[in-house]
Structures are given as C-alpha cells and as structure tokens.
Prior knowledge:
The structure holds two protein chains of two kinds. Chain A is built from 16 helices and 16 strands. The longest helix of chain A has 17 residues, at 411-427. In chain A, strands 6-7-8-3-9-10 form a six-stranded mixed β-sheet, with helices on both faces. A four-stranded antiparallel β-sheet of chain A has the order 2-1-4-5, with helices on one face. Chain A has a three-stranded antiparallel β-sheet with strand order 11-13-12. Chain A has helices at residues 56-63, 103-113, 118-131, 147-159, 177-192, 208-214, 245-259, 295-307, 315-322, 326-338, 353-360, 363-377, 379-390, 398-406, 411-427, 445-451, and strands at 10-22, 29-41, 45-49, 71-76, 79-80, 88-91, 165-169, 200-205, 217-222, 227-233, 312-314, 342-345, 348-351, 395-397, 432-434, 439-441. Chain A is of the alpha/beta class. Chain A folds into two domains: 10-259, P-loop containing nucleotide triphosphate hydrolases (Rossmann fold), CATH 3.40.50; 295-451, Arc Repressor Mutant, subunit A (Orthogonal Bundle). Chain A is globular. Mean pLDDT of chain A is 84; it is low at 1-5, 269-280 and 446-452. By secondary structure, chain B is mainly α. Chain B has three domains: 17-271 and 280-323, MetI-like (MetI-like fold); 325-360; 363-577, MetI-like (MetI-like fold), CATH 1.10.3720.10. In chain B, the strands form two sheets. Chain B has a two-stranded antiparallel ribbon with strand order 1-2. The model of chain B is unreliable at 1-5 (pLDDT under 50). The chains are: A alpha/beta, B mainly alpha.
Amino acid sequence: MIKSVPTGDVLIAVENMYKRFPLPDGKGEFTVLRDINLMVRSGEVVALLGRSGSGKSTLLRVMAGLLPPSEGRVLSNGQLLRGTNENVAMVFQSFALLPWLTVQQNVELGLEARGIHRDERRQRALKAIDLVGLDGFESAYPKELSGGMKQRVGFARAFVLQPQVLFMDEPFSALDVLTSENLRGEIDDLWNAGTFPSRSIVIVTHNIEEAVFLADRVIVLGANPGHIRGEVVINLPRPHPRSHPRFKALVDYIYTVMTNPNLEVTGEVTVPSLATPPKAVPTSPYAQPLPHARTGGISGLLELIVESSKDEIDIYQLAERLRLSVDDLLPILDGAQLLGFAEVKQGDVRLTDTGRDFATTTILRSKDLFRQQVLDRVPMLVSIWQTLQEKQSGTMRAGFFLDLLDEHFPHDEAERQFATAVDWGRYAELFEYDASEERLYLPEVSTLQAAE
Amino acid sequence: MLKRTFPSPEALRRFPFGLADVAVILGTLLLLALIGRIGAGTFVSFQPPDVVPGVDLDPRNLPYYAGRSTLRMFIALFFSTVFTLIYGYVAANSRRAERVMIPLLDILQSVPVLGFLSITVTGFIALFPGRLLGLEAASIFAIFTSQVWNMTFSFYQSLRTVPQDLAEAAALYQLSGWQRFTKLEVPSATIGLLWNAMMSFGGGWFFVTASEAISVLNQEYTLPGVGSYVAAAIADENLAALGWAILAIAVVIVLVDQLFWRPLIAWSDKFRLEQSAAAEAPESWVYDLLKAARIPRLVGNALTPAREALNRSLSALTRPKPVRPVEPAQQARADRLYNLILLIIIGVLVAWALHFIVTTVGLGEVVTAFGLGVLTLLRVTALLIFATLIWTPIGVAIGFNPKLSRMLQPVVQFLASFPANFIFPFATLFFIRTNISIEWGSILLMALGAQWYILFNSIAGAQTIPTDLREMASDVGLTGWKRWEKLIIPGIFSAWVTGGLTASGGAWNASIVSEIVSWGQSTLTATGLGAYIADATAVGDWPRITLGIGMMSLFVVGINRVFWRRLYLLAETKYHL
Lengths: 452, 577
C-alpha cells in the first residue's frame, strides 16, 4: 500500500508569514523567517527539516501561537489564530516536565486547565499513561525516571488532550541512540495502527533519516533568513522500510540538498511552494557566515577520510559511522569545503589534494596550509587580519568586529560567528585573542613574518 | 499451631493513629496554646506616660519574653511572604511596573532599617491610640523591612528565570493565571525564596532586639520582649540577667531552626529544578514525623474538594488572554511618555528633599554628614579587610575538610543568625575597663554581626573548588602563597563577593547601634554617620534624620554600584567555576 499526498482538510495554514525579532539596543530588527507558506492537512505527518539557524523551531512556535507572526497570518481550522493554539499539543526536546508534580499530575495538567472534573481527569490520564507504556509509574516524580521515560510522560501529556495536531520539537534528540530509536519506532507504530490520539503530526528535526522514516512530507528549510526551500514527498508504504532502495535514495537526495544551500529542492515528486529567490551577493566580508566548525573537528574528519582509503565517502554512511547528527556533521563538512580541503557532490565527500596534504602532514606544516587557505578563501578572517595590521598598535577591540557582524546576524549568532573566527584565526596564527580584555592582537613578529 | 494473639506489625501500622499522630496532635495543641497565651499580651492597655509596660529582670519571665519576640518575628515573616509574592509577581509580569519597582527595591534594600524606626513608631502609635498594638506594629514593621527585600528580589529573579520550555508548556497547555502561579511560578521559586527567608529571619533577630526598646522623640518606649530585657539589664548593669538572655535567645534560635526551617527545607527539596535526583537530600526529624503521621494526610484529603473548587473558581477568573499584537511605534511613544512622567516625579521628589534639608539645616550640615559618612565608610572597609584576613583562611581550611565542614556548618549558621547586639554590653564593658576608644571599638562591634557572612561564604566557596583542581595544584607543587594566588583566591572569589556584599550591608546597618553604646549610666559615642542618625532619632530632629538616612542610603547605593557590582561582573565572567 502506497500512501500518496493526503488531501484531507487543512488544519493549519501559514500564509505569507514573516517573523522578525528586535535586535538588542533597539538597532532595528532581524528577520528569522521569510515569506513562509505552509499547510498541515488532516492525516499526514509533516517534518520540518533544516540546519540550525533555519528558524524551524520558530516556525513551529508561530504555528503553536507561542509567538505572534510579524507579518502574514496563521489559520487554525480556517480561523485566524490569536494567542496560543488550542488545537495543538507539543512534545518538547527537553521534556518540559514540572519536577514537583508526579507523572500523573504532569499528565493531568492540560486537562485541569480545561476545567475537567477530577474523576474524569484521573481516568483519561491513566489511559494516556497506559498508552505510552508507563503503567505503574503514575506516582513517580520525573527525577526518578530515565530520559526515555520522561519523554514518554511528555507524549502522554500531549496525547491526553487529543489534539488535532501533535507538535514535536526534536523529541528524540535529547535521548541516547538506542532509546530514541525505540521510542521513535513506538510512536510510528502507534500512528500506523490508526489509533493515534491526534489527526496529524508536525515534527521538527535536524535528523534526515528520522524525517524520512516518520514523515509523509519533508519540508526543507534554508537559513539566513529562514525560508522554505521546497518539499520532498516520501511516498513509501508505512512503516517506511529502511531497506527500500527509495528510502536510501531519498536520504541521499536530502543530504545533497542540505550540503548545497544553493541547490533548488525539487525531489522526484516535488511541489515547490515558491521559487527560491536569487541569493543576494554579500558585499561585506562579514555577511558570509562561517560554518561553526572547530579546527580540530575539521582536521579530525579529514584524517578519518584519508584513513578509510576510499576516494569518496557517502555522507549518510559517514554520519551513521560517527553517530553524528546533521547539525554536528554538516558544519564540519562546510568548513572543509570552504577551506578547499574537500568537495561534496551528490551526497558524497572527496578530499582535494590540499586536503589530503593537510590531513597527512606535520602539525606545523598543516598550520601553514590552513593559513594559506584561510587567506585565499575566507574574506572575514582576511578582513580582520588586515584591520589589525592597519592599526599601529596591532590590536583592536572585539566589540568593533562584533558590531560589524551584528549588522548581518542576530546578536547570539554574531557572537558565535566571532567565536568561530577567533578559533580559526588562532589556529592559523593570524591573530590572538585576550578574552578578559576582549581584544584581538597580532601575534609576535616572528610568526607574523611567516604569515607574509 | 500457634495462634496469633497480637496484631501483626503491618496491622499496627495500619491503625489510623500511630505515635507520630499523637506527637503531631500534642505539638499542634501546644503551639496553639502558646500563641494564645503570648498573643494576649499584645492587647494590653498603653497610656504613655502613665501606663507603660515594664520589663522584669527575673529570669523566670524570659521564656515569655522570648516568646513575644519570636511571635513578632513570625508575624513579620508572614507579611514579608505576602508582600514578596505580590510585589515580585507584579514586577515580573508588568514591564512598566518593573521599571519602577526594581530600582526602588534596590534602594530600599540599602536604606538603613534602624533609621526608619523613629518615623514608623510615631506613625503606628497614632494609628492605635491607647493600645500597645501601635508599638507592636512598629517593631514588626522594623523586622519586616529588614527581612523582606532580599526575599522579594529572590522571588522576582526566580520568576524571570522560569525555564523557557516550562513557560512554553504552560502557555500551550492553556494554564490559567492562577494555575501558572501555583503550579509553575511559586514552585520554581520556592527553594530560593526559602533560603533567603531563612537568612533574613536570622538577620531579623538583630532588629527585633533593637526595635523593642528605643527612645524616639525624647520618649522611651519599651515593648516586652527579649530585646527590652537586654536593654533593662544594661541599664541595671546586671551581668547575670544578660547571661540568661543570651541563653534564651540561643535556645529559641535552635528551636526555630529545628521545628520550622529544617522541615521546610527538607520538604522544599522536591522543588529542585534539576531533573536528576540530588546527591544529598536535606533531612529533618520533624518532617519525617509529619510524613509518618496520618493526620496531615487525612486533613489534606478532607480538604481536597474545597481546594478543587477554589482552584477552579480562581482559574475561571484568570483565563489566559489572547495576545494582541502591539504596534512598535505606538509602544515606543507610550514608553517615552511614561519615562518622562517618571523622570518628573523623581525630579520633584529629589528637589523637595533637597529644599527641605537646605532650608532647615543648611548646606553646611550636608557636608558634615558626608564627612561622617566617610568616617563610617572607613570603619566598614577596615572591618571587611580584617574579617577577610582572619576568616577566609579559616573558612577555606574548614571548606576543604568535608568532615569538619559538615560539623561546623550549623554552628556558623547559628552564629550568623545570633543577634550581635546581645554581645554589645560585654564589649562595651571591656572598652570602658581597658580605655579603648569607641572610635576603634565600634569596628569590632560592627564586625560581631557582619564577619560571619565572610566566614560562611568562604566555607561555601572552598567547597565548590573541584577536588581534581586541588589534586592538580598539589601535583604541580603549588604551595603557600602560590596556591592561594592561582587556585584558592580565584576559586572562592564569587562566594567572597557575595559574603562581602552582605557583610558590608549589615555593617552599615549595624553602625546605627554600634557607634553609640551604653553600660549603666555611661554612654560611649563615636564620630560617624551611624551615631549621627541615632542621635537625631533620639531627639526627634526630622531634618537631620532625613539627611542622615538619605546620606547613608547614598553611600550604600554608591558603593554597591561602583564597587560590588563590578566585582560581581568579574566573578560571573572570569572566575565562574
């Protein structure tokens, strides 16, 4: 049985929605989500997939009514959404259980808020606890439970309300591999059995395999600002068989899309919700984000690929082998690509000659290589280095560069960008950073000459 | 086969009333009887100057006096808690109110409580003419003002730092305002609030004793209590009575700790926000007794329907409201207007106070008060330096030794809450006998109360230094001063800042009672802002009282801003372990 795109009633509709957050100190606004159009229909599982910074969690919170949209509108059952959405319940990444309430009291919370009588509350809570397999733990406190059991309470708390749509915000990512595999399977079984307490599911994830396994449609989000790049319809019999060739093809395809931000997402059965507008060419060297990869992570990955003695490695297999989620692996790959150490094509990664050299040579030589590549290919670091050289004292406040970054990123991201720049700059011995004085310095003369 | 004649242990345990219940019933009855007996005393007639309650120095009266003082403390604690819940909630939930309420709290925290007494005593006596209740209320108010600010701060801070995911869950599951308050906000603030209340309560003993026997506007007021007992003993130069008073207060402090705070702390452990079980849960025999007894649970179950009905009706009143998007430009305009009004009000108040002071005492007096403030500042600084030099090494030694610190922690806690003004007479006598000038002696008096915060926090700070860091220090051969410089001082820095700030605040407050001390007929007066305020209060010189309190508040707020706040920042960023 192959389930095609559901054509059920539209439960939630997002129309031309923008979300902006004010920058600190009233320096204008920062756009997190741009022109989002999205529908959630009855009977489908939708996955929102994107890398960190793509605003997928923000989108979920706007649909839940926890955040108001800055522009455009959100409809729930055709009604304009005001305040929190009563038709949804959410399962949180961090469980969000009240530690001072027992399992049962936590599950009853939403019912109590709806003014339901004590006896009925009890009955329904017990049924929900039974459904998630926590029978016998009704009077336990969350701190007595393991992570997986805590998340089961989170599911029971959502199930008991029988929401139209169940929202899951990375529900399995705080659990260890085996536990998350187990719980994911159980949730999928429940859905496939047709006894699921909600009519639709929206899951936010950064795990590609999880998205393909659970969802009927995968919406791929892009970053800076967050936008919908397109969607991939899974079109597999439920439960989605991991051994099916199409399963692997889909995972590979999505990996390729995720590693190439400029690629248009068409998939095989795609309905692009809007054409990706041409990317504006960044003019400032501070507008091009650095991937958040530590230098140690990059060289570690390159060494691993060298040792595998294959020319090309499948990214999906690599992630499986390293037990790394996309959010952890992709920035490292991006870093390697940006520095010209590796190339990513069709879901495979291969080393360049420089990359091979970098991975196999001595520490001192690899630092030289790193510095060369940085000066050739990373405008932000070149600009920082030049600014420092132009100063007589060879030193500059960190705040100066942070201000430049603030113009292109939200403040938290600007700080992370700066931290990454410092990590790379230190490794390349382009500059030094004194965290207590918050100043950047040119290194001592000897290393400086080597750099030139 | 043997026939069972005695009920099995299980059956005995199932018997509705166990020994624990007997203890609980007796305890409750005893408590009610005590409150009735002691509380009746507050309604006696009071017609100054003819009918004034005196204090009898017979030690047999001490339990009654101690009871009166304790009752005052608990009434003040009750009001402090109610105030905290309301003030903190409003400040945390209204952006506009927050802008006024939090700076105001910051200033009120720095105002010397004892300086207030003169104002409040006259006010409250006028409120309850012919009754001792006015004096009683003034004393309770003094304790209240000494307890409440840091409780409110702690509660407000907890409300502002409710974990994001919990707040989102509460919003999404449509919790009503009342449910949110009782299920999320108060529980997550409980532990912090309780610790602060306990610390405040300990500090409150100082003020209960100071506020029971005061002279305001050339009039001596005496309120029966352990503090006025001490005052009478001093006037009578009766050392034995002083000894009995110290014993009484020590017993009361230990009893309140065992019967009230320990059980609460043990109970509050379930409000810990960490999702994993705590390594060492606090214990209390009273709490265990209450848990073992059936009565509390039976009463609780009987009240469930009533509680349910109350929760429902309050929830119905506080349904979550849909958020209405606000136009940013409109909001900015409203904010500017609001700021302008605030500025005008503050400006008028400052101008009025300045005008009052300048027209009554003149600018010269302001300069005098400032000079006196500098003198007191020097005393506070000297105290901090000496207390640090003496107590940090001792504190660190205790903190590094788990066995010792487990043993001494309660002792130090006891010392911190022991009212230092009970020791003052002995010190005064010592100064008189040895001809030590009170100019220097007052430093010691101020230190008697304040130094414990430094010791207490040094111990706590040393305990937070991880063992592996200490092992590393030994491993690389860090000894002597190097060990202090590289490991210990950075490690205990945050804790020391907390202790130093508390000690400094306490010392400023204590200056009002330690720059003037007396023994019998002889009175020692030091030059300083504390003595200035105490003098002005005694004769009812309003302009000087206003000037003195204002000056001291300025000093405390100023030093907090330029000195302690910076150290805090440093502690949070650089020396955060």
